[in-house]
Amino acid sequence: MRKIARLIIFGFLIFNVTNCKTVEKKKPNPNPPKVEFDSYYLGKSDFPEPKGFINDYELIFTPEEQVKLTNIIKEFEKKTSNQIAVVTIKSIGKYTDFDKYAVDLSDYWKIGQYNKDNGLTIILSKTLKKIRISTGNQTEHILTDEICMKILSDKIIPELKKGEYYNGIEIGLTELIKNWK
Question: Which PANTHER family match (predicted)?
């Protein structure tokens, strides 16, 4: 009985081996067809990916200055749950309006807690000579456009004009935090 079972298995194997086809490997096409995607489809945007509290894409701040600014923001968030991001950029991509870019970047990064909308973003471009404070919907009830503009014109911009970018942002952050209670 075992011999018959072995013969059946052996015959089955021989039958399958003789019916196998050899598959030839094809050489890759040296001129593959080009596939084109538009930037929206790929999920690309004009916005850089957030790195943390300080997003210095223009390399304005020293590592020590970034740490100091981060500590100010972290301490404030710990006490209040309000979120702040500082962003430096060289370009606004396809945008033509810096203020629109700043608002859209803040929305895209979702600065502030979802259910509180308590975020604030400072977007600065040394190259473009522009700065904007963008607030979340709840934040703007406390830090109104008038307050933000006054802090920009009285505290931040005078320092920026002197080339003191870190001092301008630190003074501005301190003043915003003082008013955001």
Answer: UPF0603 PROTEIN YGCG (PTHR30373:SF2)
Which pLDDT does position 156 carry in this prediction? 97
Is 95 a domain residue? yes
Selection from 134, 28, 49, 47 nearest residue 91 by Cα: 47
What is the per-residue pLDDT for 104? 92
pLDDT profile of the chain (181 residues), mean per 10: 52 52 54 40 65 95 97 96 95 92 92 88 96 92 94 97 97 96 76
Q: Is the dihedral of CA 124, 134, 147, 176 positive or negative?
A: negative
Query: Which helix (DSSP H) or strand (DSSP E) does residue 174 occupy?
Result: helix 165-179
Q: What is the reported pTM?
A: 0.73
CA distances from 13 to 2, 3, 17 (A): 16, 15, 6
- C-alpha to C-alpha distance for 39 and 69, rounded to whole angstroms: 34
Per the structure, how many domains does the chain have? 1
DSSP structural state of residue 148: H
**Residue type (1 letter), 76:** F
Domain-embedded: residue 75: yes
Q: Is residue 14 part of a domain?
A: no
- Strand 130-135 with 83-88, pairing: unpaired
